[in-house]
Amino acid sequence: MSSALLSVENAVVDLPTPRGNLRAVDHVDLAVGAGRTLGIVGESGCGKTMLSRAVLQLLPKKAKLSGRVMFDGQDLTTLSAEKLRKLRGRSLAVVFQDPMTSLNPVLTIGTQLIETIQEHLELDLAEARQRSIELLAAVGIPAPEQRLAQYPHQLSGGMRQRVAIAVALSCEPKLLIADEPTTALDVTIQAQILDLLAREQQRRHMAMIIITHDLGVVAGRTDEVAVMYAGRVVERAPTPALFKQMRMPYTEALLAALPKLDVAPHTPLPAISGRPPDPTRPLKGCSFSPRCRYSAGRCASEKPQLCSAETPEHLYACFHPIAARVGA
């Protein structure tokens, strides 16, 4: 992981709650290189957003982070607030799930873009304004010059998300984190936004992390996928290898839950039975064991660690990997 642009090493995030300590991220290792795209997939509450906030150093005030977050040769966990502020928006950028809350409702689109640009780049007002127009045009917003004077509520959800992407890209970041960037949008607009992100990522040769609950979002759009469950990465592999042969039953269950076109109308969607474990009461064994149809023996008493299958790039945390049952 040392050659990666971003390397998360043994990251742990603990949050104090009235019910006890909540481990939101549990010993996670991840890496992504320049020009590469990593997908982080999992159900709500699995820790994927908290992991991204650990990367950005935007954790809740009382959260405790251990481990290292290496970005471009620097350990972000050791930097001062001032140095982090200069990195965020410049080298590190993020697109949040809901642009209506990530964009300031009382400032015009132009003000928000120009302020971001002038904060990090040495441009005067006229230059920053021209760059803002070019950015809005690049992300597919028609009549970009007119949009500068508009407020977020005057735009559609898809247009607001395009503005949020323009803000994130405004200072040519080295890493873009897209945290559920399409959840609040309809299916057609979702595809447009994902295609836009992929196009800009390739054009700028930046690293990108796409965080989502939908395996369909990362298929064909990422180089590598990390599947998270209960704060841990339970499977990690190059994207083609993951979809060719999943090892972890949870990954298989996530894929099975996706809607399919080749089924009869009104066919119920497969659902993952049970509920995720209480993060304030961690299980002794595999965290997915109570919901797993293949659970047996030591699954309930021992915690599986990530190990490799046929290739060292494909890791899974399971005592009964899917490959072992093929032909059984």
Please provide a written account of the structure.
- The protein has twelve helices and twelve strands.
- The chain has 328 residues and is α/β, with parallel strands linked by helices.
- The protein has a domain at 92-172.
- A hairpin with a 6-residue loop joins strand 11 (307-308) and strand 12.
- Helix 5 packs across helix 7.
- The longest helix is centred in the middle third of the chain and has 18 residues, at 187-204.
- The protein is globular, with a radius of gyration of 21 Å.
Specify the structural class. alpha/beta
Q: How large is the count of helical segments?
A: 12
Query: SSE order in H/E notation?
Result: EEEHEEHEHHHHHEHEHEEHHEEH
How large a portion of the residues is in β-strands, by DSSP E? 15-25%
Count of strand segments: 12
The rounded Rg comes to 21 Å
Q: What's the story with the biggest beta sheet?
A: 8 strands, mixed
Lay out the secondary structure.
Blueprint: E1 6-17, E2 20-32, E3 37-41, H1 48-56, E4 64-71, E5 74-75, H2 81-87, E6 92-95, H3 99-102, H4 109-120, H5 125-138, H6 144-147, H7 157-169, E7 175-179, H8 187-204, E8 207-212, H9 215-218, E9 224-229, E10 232-238, H10 239-244, H11 249-256, E11 307-308, E12 315-316, H12 322-325
Parallel strand pairs: 3-8, 3-9, 6-7, 7-8
Antiparallel strand pairs: 1-2, 1-4, 4-5, 9-10, 10-12, 11-12
Helix pairs in contact: 4-5, 5-7, 7-8
